[in-house]
Structure formats: C-alpha cells, structure tokens
C-alpha cells in the first residue's frame, strides 16, 4: 500500500481538542509507518449520526476530484454511527476506487464485514 495518496479523517462527537489532536497524531504516525502520502486532513467535532457534516463533505469533494486513493480513519465509528448511511457511504467510496483503512486494524472487505464492524463499534457510549 505504499505511496498511496491518503486523506486522514478524524472526528469526535463532543468538544475535546485533546482527543481530536491525539486521534490526528495517531493517524499521521500510522500513515507514515505505512508509507502513505498524506494529501489532506479533516478533523471535526460533530455527531456521527449527522451525514451533512462539513468535514465529510470535504472528504467527499477530494474523492470526487480524484485526489485520494484511500481514506484513513481510527475506526469505522469515526466515519459514521448510522449503519445504513455509513454502509452507503462506504459503497460510494468503493465505487470511486477509494479504499478505507482503519488504524485499529479492521479493514472491512465486504458489506457483511462492514455492518458487523459498525454494530460492534456502535456498542460504545460515545457518538
């Protein structure tokens, strides 16, 4: 996966600048360790249930413009908390030939794996 153009996406649900910065630093280190070329970073505080987020729109624009090969997130819950909408967004990314890489080691390959991962991460308290 080396030399792939990566976009880092970080999200926290509640105001916590420290958690957001830590998430970003962790993803930057992950990208460097795996030889990804970071071409953009989005960090935002927003609910994972809201898919009209400014940051997600920024990611979508980069995807539509063909600027990235992969989207790097801490885990799938950072992308979204609504299983159906997150699945639809992941399918759209796949249609655009953008791979999603989760730094927690979960790299879903099929819709079934995506849904299983989303259900598992939805069992935590934070949104």
Care to describe what's here?
The chain is α/β, with parallel strands linked by helices and 127 residues long. It has one domain: Rossmann fold. Helices cover 44% and strands 20% of the residues. It is built from 5 helices and 4 strands. A 4-stranded parallel beta sheet has the order 2-1-3-4, sandwiched between helices. Helix 4 (83-95) runs antiparallel to helix 5 (111-121). It is globular, with a radius of gyration of 13 Å. 29% of the residues are buried.
Structural key phrases:
127 residues; Rossmann fold; four-stranded parallel β-sheet; 5 helices; 44% helix; globular
- Kindly report how far apart the N and C termini lie: 30 Å
- CATH domain class name: Alpha Beta
Judging by the overall fold, what is the CATH architecture?
Answer: 3-Layer(aba) Sandwich
Rounded mean pLDDT is: 87
Count, helices? 5
The Rg value, from CA coordinates, equals 13 Å
**Main β-sheet: number of strands, strand sense, barrel status?**
4 strands, parallel
Following the backbone from N to C, one meets helices and strands in this order, namely EHEHEHHEH
Could you estimate the helical fraction of the residues in percent?
Answer: 40-55%
DSSP E strands, number: 4
List the helices and strands and how they pair.
Elements: E1 5-12, H1 17-33, E2 37-45, H2 54-64, E3 70-73, H3 76-79, H4 83-95, E4 99-102, H5 111-121
Parallel strand pairs: 1-2, 1-3, 3-4
Short description:
This protein is α/β, with parallel strands linked by helices and 127 residues long. It has helices at residues 17-33, 54-64, 76-79, 83-95, 111-121; strands at 5-12, 37-45, 70-73, 99-102.
């Amino acid at each position: 996966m080396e030399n792939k153009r990566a976009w880092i996406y970080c999200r926290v649900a509640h105001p916590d600048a420290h958690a957001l910065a830590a998430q970003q630093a962790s993803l930057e280190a992950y990208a460097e360790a795996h030889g990804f070329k970071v071409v953009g970073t989005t960090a935002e505080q927003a609910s994972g249930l809201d898919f009209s987020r400014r940051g997600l729109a920024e990611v979508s624009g980069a995807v539509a413009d063909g600027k990235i090969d992969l989207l790097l997130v801490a885990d799938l819950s950072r992308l979204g908390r609504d299983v159906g909408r997150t699945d639809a967004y992941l399918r759209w990314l796949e249609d655009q030939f953008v791979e999603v890489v989760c730094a927690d080691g979960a790299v879903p390959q099929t819709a079934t794996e995506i849904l299983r991962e989303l259900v598992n991460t939805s069992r935590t308290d934070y949104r």
